Amino acid sequence: MFAIENLHKSFVASGAEVRAVDGISLGVETGKLITLLGPSGCGKTTTLRCLAGLERPQSGRIVIANRTVFDSAKRIFVPASDRGIGMVFQSYAIWPHMTVFENVAFPLRVARAKKYSSAEIRDRVSRMLDMVQLTGFAQRPATQLSGGQQQRLAFARGLVHEPAILLLDEPLSNLDAKLREQMRLELKRLQRSFGITTVYVTHDQSEALALSDEIAVFDSGRIIQRGTPQQIYREPKNRFVADFVGSANFLPGTVHGNEDGLTAVETAHGVLRCRFAEPIDAGMKALLTARPEDIALGNAAAPPPHAANVLKGRIVNRVFLGEVVDYVIDLGDREWRARARSDDFQIGQAVTLTLSPQKCVGLPG
Amino acid sequence: MTVVQHATDLLSTEPVSRWRRPNFVLIVCVAIGIWLVLVPLAALLLTAFTEDTGLGFGAWTFDNFVDAYGSGRILRLIGNSLIYAAGTAALTFVIGGFVAWAVERTDAPGGALFHNLALLSFAIPGLLMAMAWIFVLSPNIGWVNALLKAAFGLRNAPLNIYSMAGMIWALSSHYFPLAYLALGPALRALDVRMEEAGLVSGGRYWQVLPKITLPLLRPAILSGLLLLFIMGLSSYEVPRVIGRPARIDVFTTQIQQATIATPPEFGNASALSLALLVVCLVAVYFYRRATRNAEAFATITGKGYMPTRIELGRWRWPVSFAIGVLFLIALGLPLFTLAWQSFFSNLSQPFMGSAPPATLANYEYILRYPIFLDAVRTSVVVSAMAATVVVALTLIMAWLARRAASRFAWLLDALASAPIAIPSVIVGASILFTYLVVPIGVYDTIWILLIAYVTLCLPYGMRFASSGITQIHRELEEVAEVSGARTAQVLLRVLLPLVLPFLLAAWIYVFVLSVRELGASIFLVGPGTNVLGTISLTMWEEGGSYGAVAALGVIQILPLLIIVAGLRWLETHVHRRTRTGAGAARTRTG
């Protein structure tokens, strides 16, 4: 539905050149939702703004719905107003001087491809307001809406002119935690029912995991990894992704050998077996990754019978979170985190940490 | 882009592609800015370095500088100007600083009233203020002097407005509200927690004030002082009606004198102007330096804290009373005197003996006086045009600077704010020199006044437009663009309605400034193009009756007061609206 090829965009900030987008290539099929995920300053928002036509990249190519909207080699730059996109901003950017109706009607009133009659506009706007459950709000001043309503209004405005793609720039970050979760579901429902290709920018990994068909993890203006939420979470390609998406414990080591699709890694805490995405030769440096929720804690006084992939440690801190308890465990040379349903373990207690080899991911060190 | 490439682009299948193309709007704006600001200054320079021929530029020469700076007179001129400007800056600052502190930082009652009074003082033309002070404090006709002489049995008048101190007082009484308005926001924005941290650490308030509060306010204090100093240097009205009879010359009056000498000494005037300009530029340089690092003094932190105020206890009412008396003396006294005198044809001193019966004859005379009616028309028409042009031009310049061409923001800002550093007298003189030579037929017409007013008011228009645009979240425009609106539609349907209150405020502000204007007008009015300021001056100096002059003043001040009150209403209205509008997205999350 859209494709970005080798996009470069740099800014000059206080005398130094900052490469905000440093060779991004990205393509997405019709109807999918892709999330650009990364910490602030990673280039995800700049990429989105280049796609929208709000920034002018230095080089590269952007195609939206089979139309080249940017090509530095052919000197093509289609302005934002002609790209046929819908966008929802972080601030929602609801026009305070217009009613709810006028906010949604605006894209139709300024449309050039087609002239809409006022009856058509009324029709489409009210249908749109129905879809985002703002029926009956049409004549209200837009500033009188609550945060969640403003967000839905921004959606209606972004979709009313049937854009080829929908761009969402951190649309949930201004909401409080409860409403954010609710709107996350709402957003997914809307996107599905419209079947519109959507690009979603966020720094919130749980939003990314919950919403996306696909995630592109950004760092320093580059895409570090692309994949489904499961792939990104279960098979991180490097330490940055493992650390940024969810949280992870790390342990360095050396590859010992491969058997049964698993790889044995020699570490300071013994030989541990784990999974590598790509085969790796013995003798190579490696980094073991374990998610806190994948660690099974046990009482060191009663170790499991066929103990494999077990580490030993002592609990140094515990944080009660309600449904789960987070433990900080001293392994001697480092601290790990583990998450368990049980709150039986006490500070100072010696524990075993059992890692499932299937869920323990090895990264090339 | 080469022609060949351009042609292939046109043939390509992309219907709406816009690669880089020159920004004509930007070029036009910069050209207008250069024409308004730099061309007159170039004419001034040329005039300074060439022989006076009466028309056009003569041969290169340094004689003008020898003439202007050769005698000891120049030292007196520099001395007078600096003492007058520095004295005014210091006095206004002390008074204004006290008012600002009491209104913003203490629980003394009446803050809103004093704030409104300070804003209203802007409506009073400087010339009328100076004249009114003569009615109050002249040794011969001043009624306060007469009153004091009678009360204490004195033989000589105890107070003399015709002195350096009198000049400083006359200007300070008019400008101290400006000092308050300049310092107030800084005091209000000062994070009270910084003071509280000092108090909690065990400091007393009298220790915290010099160690924490004042250093935090240093940028505001320095920039305020320098601004007032520049305004003192540029001031023309007080030196003209008070300084000249007292034989206390400053640069502004001397420059004007030289241009009306026979034969005109334009070269001399220009040479003097350059010296004044250099002093102003130096002051502006330091002003910029003082405000440049203002952000480093993070006085505003986040949102929604309630500043706690110093509880004055039993000093609450005395402090408030003192400020009230200050306003009464500084603004009430001269205005009351002017109003009183306007009801009597001959000199009438309030509280001195029995007054003759009051009469409206002065008003009847003024309102039927054809020169007055012409001047009203000229002033209103030219000021309205100037306000419109300034608002339109600075809106486009501010939009380019803040949005479309932010790379050139420095250039647009520099051009639009340059006139701040140029005293109105120099603007008037240099525009005169320019259009004596440039043959586009604006000399002796209202258009030359329009050019002067637009030039003088550019900085104020730019400030309103810039702050208006800065307060509008840029995403409001971007989402319109993404929705398919062309630039013109974005500007007309989104930006314009949102900045309209700011533009209206700017319009009123520029209008009032232009109606009040005298320093530049005096060079540029012709026989048919007198404005209110110039006819008031003529009437004063050429012996109109005291009553007629006073009535002329009251007739000007009243409408201006109403207009400025309207501006004040508009600003509070805008403030409330932008707060609810901008805050809605963030605060209403339920």
Structure description:
The complex is a heterodimer of chains A (365) and B (590). In chain A, the strands form four sheets. In chain A, strands 7-8-9-3-10-11 form a six-stranded mixed beta sheet, with helices on both faces. A five-stranded antiparallel beta sheet of chain A has the order 2-1-4-5-6. A five-stranded mixed barrel of chain A has the order 12-13-14-21-15. Chain A contains eight helices and 21 strands. The longest helix of chain A has 18 residues, at 177-194. With 365 residues, chain A is of the alpha+beta class. Chain A has two domains: 2-241, 3-Layer(aba) Sandwich (Rossmann fold); 247-364, RNA polymerase II/Efflux pump adaptor protein, barrel-sandwich hybrid domain (OB fold (Dihydrolipoamide Acetyltransferase, E2P)). Chain A has helices at 44-52, 100-109, 118-131, 147-159, 177-194, 205-211, 229-234, 239-244, and strands at 2-13, 16-28, 33-37, 59-64, 67-71, 76-77, 85-88, 165-169, 197-202, 214-219, 222-227, 249-259, 262-267, 270-276, 285-290, 295-299, 310-320, 325-330, 335-340, 350-355, 361-364. The two termini of chain A are 37 Å apart. In chain A, strand 5 and strand 6 form a beta hairpin. In chain B, helix 11 runs antiparallel to helix 14 (266-292). Chain B folds into two domains: 68-295 and 315-339, MetI-like (MetI-like fold, Orthogonal Bundle); 357-581, MetI-like (MetI-like fold, Orthogonal Bundle). The model of chain B is unreliable at 1-15, 295-305 and 579-590 (pLDDT under 50). Chain B has a two-stranded antiparallel sheet. Chain B has helices spanning 3-11, 24-48, 63-70, 73-105, 111-120, 126-137, 143-152, 164-189, 192-200, 205-216, 218-234, 237-243, 251-260, 266-292, 316-341, 361-367, 370-404, 409-417, 424-437, 446-470, 474-482, 487-516, 521-524, 532-541, 546-587, and strands spanning 50-52, 57-60. By secondary structure, chain B is mainly α. Chain B has 25 helices and two strands. The interface between A and B is large, with 49 and 37 residues.
